[in-house]
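User: quick one, sequence for these tokens?
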């Protein structure tokens, strides 16, 4: 594989990362789940998360799966319970993208 195609595939992967993270963050309930996890020590059972919402379990479960597929949470089975943990490192993807807007773009000078 040439260095140009490696660079292109790396850029494609990064764009896919941005898409996955922002698609997961586009829903208020999923953003709320992330905030709850953050303020409750980064780890909660599925039942504890569901108790915080007025929506049905299938809806909550769908939100948790979307967050997991975006890599924003990881899940682990502990006996009969599912433990969800916030993956802070994955949230850096959003921060990285937003970082592009911290300074005005440099413009090419006209001769």
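Assistant:
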């Amino acid at each position: 594989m040439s260095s140009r195609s490696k660079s292109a595939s790396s850029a494609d992967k990064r764009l896919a990362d941005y898409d996955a993270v922002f698609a997961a963050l586009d829903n208020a309930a999923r953003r709320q789940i992330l905030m709850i996890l953050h303020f409750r020590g980064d780890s909660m059972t599925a039942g504890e998360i569901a108790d915080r919402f007025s929506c049905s379990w299938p809806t909550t479960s769908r939100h948790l799966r979307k967050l997991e597929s975006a890599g924003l949470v990881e899940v682990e089975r502990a006996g009969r319970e599912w433990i969800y943990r916030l993956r802070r490192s994955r949230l850096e993807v959003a921060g990285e993208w937003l970082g592009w807007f911290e300074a005005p773009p440099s413009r090419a000078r006209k001769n």
